Amino acid sequence: MKETVLSTENLGFTYPDGTEAIKNINISIKKGEKVAVIGSNGAGKSTLFSHFNGLSEPTEGLIKINGNPIIYKKKELMKVRQKVGVVFQKPDDQLFAPSVIEDVAFGPMNLGLSLEEVDKRVKESLELVGMIGFENKPPHHLSGGQQKRVSIAGVIAMRPEIMILDEPTAGLDPQGVEQVLKILNDLNKEGMSIVISSHDVEMITEFADKIFVLHHGKIINQGNTEEVFSNHKLLIEAHLKPPKSSEILHRLQKKGLNVHMKLTAKDASDEIFKAKLKNQNQP
């Protein structure tokens, strides 16, 4: 049985003005899982993610990393942030050095590593994200997709066990989305747990093993992709559009066609074709 690397117990956060951002969050993420937290804008995704490596301190409940509650002291938080890396939604919130190489090296340098080890980590990280050759470029001269990849490289260089990404494909063109997802899948194959937030359900169907649906700061559903995306009523409640393939099959079911819920375009077309053949063969 895989070990739990990140979990929350009755996690809640209320702003000083009394606004409850997240309430009674109970989730469990195991080693090597690809997890998505989905919800509409304002659902509380970014607030929840800010708690995962101690950037925010909960007003209720707790977060555990490898079974140990986060302790909100500088030395202890440094240990947590070596295990849990966060990639922010906007690269501008993360990239601040005058060159790509300096930005990626910032985290490892703060760990007190030797220059040789820092150089090694920077090179390996840039290679993983396909940004070799851009070392001396100013980050603000890069495209949105390139900036996102440099942000990910900076976290990879810290060698975390868990990577948290807030809306990692927001604002990217289809090629940029594909590049980022390939990087995340490659990291996952090496054993890294990946947790992303998004309201892009089409992308999530291609990526996640486990999904949590967040609405008004509460988890209202969880499960694998088929369990979550076959519940159209709940998706509508959470202000999320079902995947196109799932929506088509759902409409066909309502018209009386015997089809099973599928999520990818290929599986959905195969399902419709099988139902069509079955209908044609009926007397």
Automatic annotation (TrEMBL):
It is found in: Cell membrane. Residues 6-241 form the ABC transporter domain. GO terms for cellular component: ATP-binding cassette (ABC) transporter complex. It is an enzyme of class 3 (hydrolase). It is a peripheral membrane protein. SMART domains: AAA. GO terms for molecular function: ATP binding; ATP hydrolysis activity; ATPase-coupled transmembrane transporter activity. Keywords: ATP-binding, Cell membrane, Hydrolase, Membrane, Nucleotide-binding, Translocase, Transport. This is Energy-coupling factor transporter ATP-binding protein EcfA3.
